[in-house]
Every structure is written in structure tokens, then in C-alpha cells.
Amino acid sequence: SSTMSLSEAEVQSARCAWEKIYVDPEDNGTAVLVRMFTEHPDTKSYFTHFKGMDSAEEMKQSDQVRGHGKKVFSAINDMVQHLENSEAFLGIVTPLGKKHATQLKIDPKNFRIICDIILQLMEEKFGGDSKASFEKVTNEICTHLNNIYKEEGW
Fold first, then answer.
1. For a disulfide at 131, which of 63, 93, 123, 144, Cβ 3.0-4.6 Å?
2. H/E element holding 56?
């Protein structure tokens, strides 16, 4: 039984959109993080080793920023592969949400910020259709993460 609200056609078009940006997970993941840190400087406070970095250029060169950018994109890629299997999807989202809620204590609003920046980047690179087709996926991800946070007492 699926808790996903995406039709088969929506899953397919979301995957096509994602595949385009996932061709280069490290560079695109880094671009997303750098934009987040630049436009929402408070998000940097969670990453102790990024705190001292002020220039976007410096962040782009950082192995730690690049590594985390790639990690974020890999996690989303795993979710995208399991959109029609809610159990498998939740198997990825749940531990990730729990870790960010309990260990890392990341404010859940940051997930929406990062998803919105991914959508912006998709639109800039591949046009509005790509963005539109991936929007439902980001909504699913954020909804499930928020539910996990609620269960963890946020």
C-alpha cells in the first residue's frame, strides 16, 4: 500500500528531470549548498567547519562542502529510485530524518529551503517543466521529514 501521492506518469517525469541534474551530483550538490549558505547564512551554523567561510568561491572549493553536496544528492537519488515503493522510500527517509532531528538538531525548515534551491537550479538549467515535474517529489520528501520530526517531538 502506497502513501505516495504520485501517479506512475508523475514518477516517470520526475525521474527524467532528476536524471538530468544527477549527471553531476558533486557539482550540482555543491551549487545547491553554496547557494543555501549564501542566501541563508544561518544555515551555516549547523556545519562547524563551514562557519568561517564567507565567500562562495571558498565554499565551492571546500572538500567538506563538496562532500556534503554529493551526499545530499545521493540521498535524494535513493529516494527517487523508490518513489513507487513507499516502504523502501520511508526506509531511506526515516533514518535520515531521525538523524537530523535527534543527533544533528537541524531545523526542519532547512529541508524546504534546500528543496526549493534544487527546484530553482533545475529551472535555470533545464526549464520550468523539469522544475514542475520534480516539485511533487520535493513535497513528498519534506512532508515525510516533517512527520518524522513530529514523531521525534519537534
1. 123
2. helix 56-61
For residue 17, the domain's CATH number is: 1.10.490.10
pLDDT digits (tens, 9 = 90+) for 95-152: 999 999 999 999 999 999 999 999 999 999 999 999 999 999 999 999 999 999 999 9
* Inter-CA distances, 113 with 1, 81, 82, 142, Å: 30, 22, 23, 10
Contact 86, 3 (CB under 8 A): yes
> Which residues constitute the domain of residue 35?
8-152
The residue count for the chain: 154
Tens digit of pLDDT for each residue in 121-134?
999 999 999 999 99
Look at the pTM and tell me if it is higher than 0.85.
Answer: yes
- Rounded CA separation 73/59 (Å): 17
**Other C-beta atoms lying within 10 Å of the C-beta of residue 84:** 14
